[in-house]
Amino acid sequence: MSALGTAGRLLGRAGRSPGRGSAGVVLGPAAGRLVGAAVLGLARRIVPGLAGLVVVGVLWWLAVELLVGEESLLARFGPADAAATLLRLAGEGTLTLHAVASLRRIVAGLALAAALGIPVGLLFGASRLAGAAAGPAVGLVRMISPLSWTPIAIIVFGVGDAPVVFLVAVGAVWPIVLNTAAGVAHLDPAWLRVARSLGATRGETLRHVVWPGIRPNVLTGLRLATGLAWVVLVPAEMLGVDSGLGYRILDARDRFAYDELVATIIVIGLLGLLLDLVARRVFAARGAG
Fold this sequence. Notes:
Blueprint: H1 2-13, H2 29-67, H3 79-92, H4 94-126, H5 128-142, H6 150-157, H7 161-185, H8 189-197, H9 202-236, H10 245-254, H11 258-288
Helix pairs in contact: 1-2, 3-11, 4-5, 4-7, 4-9, 4-10, 6-7, 7-9, 9-11, 10-11
């Protein structure tokens, strides 16, 4: 981004031919080299990933063409049918509605997980007694699959969005708790002593000393939680809801629409990849800030 920004400023300052106004921008050799370097760097980051996706697609196509007979049910899971169906569903807007429903639930689940996980992590990190007392229980509960709580979630919350959000939050809360606690435990005690010697209140110490010190850990926990939440969300949406990508997979299976099923799986993978990339950029930028 810095190279592109510098290139833009150089373009803005580039020499202009007299009498030709703003349309007569002349690209200097230094600016041209800078733009070329920026484009080359961007290509080096993007092209290998795109090449890897193309290789996966080719291997998928070869597996279906060479290993699966035309009369086999598996022939309907080929990439050509999936791509055509994906384009059709995108044009109809069907997948967009389900994707928005899934994203709404994952945001709600992550917000709930953060609202619970950050204070609990602060407590465990600040109090050795609390951390030692809760450690075995946390370790036990953390190892239980979030989907194991499905019957309890349905009994308590009924059907609809609430149990799905609950299951997402259960899966996402532990990375936030553990990373927050680790950040608090590794704070330099000298910072806290200085804050106390200056007469800072607990609230001021939390805002100006503790939070800046643990922010990178909290953001790392949120990024890990985002990935786990997305993994939990899709199977959770197969239970008692009538929208979302998980529901869409179940519906396509029941209708024997296997091309739509594969297209939905591709969308789930692409959205998961996009969420991870966004989480990396956003949380890294805020952590550096």
